[in-house]
Amino acid sequence: xxxxxxxxxxxxxxxxxxxxxxxxxxxxxxxxxxxxxxxxxxxxxxxxxxxxxxxxxxxxxxxxxxxxxxxxxxxxxxxxxxxxxxxxxxxxxxxxxxxxxxxxxxxxxxxxxxxxxxxxxxxxxxxxxxxxxxxxxxxxxxxxxxxxxxxxxxxxxxxxxxxxxxxxxxxxxxxxxxxxxxxxxxxxxxxxxxxxxxxxxxxxxxxxxxxxxxxxxxxxxxxxxxxxxxxxxxxxxxxxxxxxxxxxxxxxxxxxxxxxxxxxxxxxxxxxxxxxxxxxxxxxxxxxxxxxxxxxxxxxxxxxxxxxxxxxxxxxxxxxxxxxxxxxxxxxxxxxxxxxxxxxxxxxxxxxxxxxxxxxxxxxxxxxxxxxxxxxxxxxxxxxxxxxxxxxxxxxxxxxxxxxxxxxxxxxxxxxxxxxxxxxxxxxxxxxxxxxxxxxxxxxxxxxxxxxxxxxxxxxxxxxxxxxxxxxxxxxxxxxxxxxxxxxxxxxxxxxxxxxxxxxxxxxxxxxxxxxxxxxxxxxxxxxxxxxxxxxxxxxxxxxxxxxxxxxxxxxxxxxxxxxxxxxxxxxxxxxxxxxxxxxxxxxxxxxxxxxxxxxxxxxxxxxxxxxxxxxxxxxxxxxxxxxxxxxxxxxxxxxxxxxxxxxxxxxxxxxxxxxxxxxxxxxxxxx
Length: 672
What we know:
Elements: H1 6-22, E1 26-29, E2 32-38, H2 45-52, H3 56-62, E3 75-79, H4 95-100, H5 105-113, H6 119-122, E4 133-135, H7 140-143, H8 152-155, E5 158-160, E6 163-166, E7 169-173, H9 180-186, H10 191-197, E8 211-214, E9 224-240, H11 247-254, H12 258-264, E10 276-293, H13 301-311, E11 330-336, H14 342-357, E12 365-371, H15 376-386, E13 390-393, H16 401-409, E14 413-416, E15 431-433, H17 438-452, E16 457-461, H18 469-482, E17 487-489, E18 505-510, H19 515-531, E19 536-540, H20 553-558, E20 561-565, H21 574-587, H22 596-616, E21 636-638, E22 645-647, E23 651-656, E24 660-665, E25 670-671
Parallel strand pairs: 11-12, 11-13, 13-14, 14-15, 15-22, 16-17, 16-18, 18-19, 19-20
Antiparallel strand pairs: 1-2, 2-3, 4-10, 5-6, 6-7, 7-8, 9-10, 20-23, 21-22, 23-24, 24-25
Helix pairs in contact: 10-13, 14-22, 17-18
């Protein structure tokens, strides 16, 4: 039979003693757990420590009021070592645990003994009135703000109740009664961070059902090592209550604070003769903790408004020397994509005219025009030198990324006047899509055409090209409605084409885009009308035809042209005539016939946005007042709480004989 080696015997002994200690009863005193052992007559600390595998020095320190040999029945205490933590999502470990993770039971026991905090520090404020600094035991991963989710690259979206985690960000659906402060507390973030992650929410509370983005645990990013004062348990003793003892008398005799004595004996409502109570040995020490400071402004509506203004770089009210509100100038920078073009020239003039017309308003306005055809560094340098409140761009395609980056980084807003295919508004809260995006525009027009012209046969004049997305949307909608493919007609043969029903109803979708081709096609369509006087023939034009209205207006009227557009300038309207007169007074001539829509667009942008920016102090989440516009109705909607604003209104202009027109705003379904 082989005898065990000394090392093996020692390991067996350690196992046996550890097992024996684990069978002892335990007691929790002021948040710390201790083994308890009833001493036998004549036992020593060394013998007990050897028996249970305890550290003799720590045993003596914990029971400093007792001396050996021990009396029979003496109650001995020894701190229970902490067990290693298992890794879990959002699990938090104390600084002592982190230090002791690779050390012996003895070191863990010391760490446990010295890691007690008072309620003032380890309790998170549950009521706004309690908000302030507090200590949280957090790991290094928590401080770095790591998301409470697995890698989205390998697991995709992860659902947690009403929440979805995507790309490390939690998307939360606001529940009834939830507040920003409450959400911030629940997800260990801050109200300020909620504002930053969701520029579209108001300064108070989000609406039920809204989806907001949350960086869970971001509050911990402000944690810094700080020395704090704490009461710690350094030893424990037992005391047998005598006749006449009170909490105060025992506390005084033992040199313990009476409140701490009661906390150490929570199961004792009052003292009874003969029962055993615990006497904690306390000391006040300075220890380093990770302290997270909560901004007290989060707890009040006024404070949240101040935080909101800071995040959005909103100008608070500015007072002059007499204490009166002093209006702050609004600065507008217009970045012209092609300053030499007639379109951009007209746009700039329309903006100048608008600013000139508002000079009597109570907000001064500064306006500058920047050559957007120059290099990025030159354009950005000009913007930084001017420091605009808003930026307006006339790019109609491929809007530069650096413009959207500039406004987002500088808490400004970019009004995209013409580029309907740009999608920066989807995730950039600083972008305002002035004209309805292509996808929305096409769907609205196709729906209107299908529902309004039920029973009309669709014909295609010419050949659709791959860029005609509106035509494709109308075609799909009509086919789905009638289950019939439309007939394609060569534009040069329209005058002689044979219609299947002399009294039928026909919609001709026209594909030409050049003014000469459009005029030629409309002339042939007029001839077709003469051949079929009883037929109801309508023409659906392309949106680009809007610039041709003044030049070939009679052709539009005679052919019942239906023109989907995002804007329309009616020169016969009284407001339009007043605009033209003012333009002539300012510049000495009327707008160019082909380009009045562009000067009117700039005029509408300025006369809508500048007063509203003044009224709301630049808060694009506030409700904007409605001002009459020359051509484009404006209804701004935010696509989501972290995206930009979109003007969803779309026109359909129907031209009729004798100069009559019918304008329909699709978004509001109201006639003008």
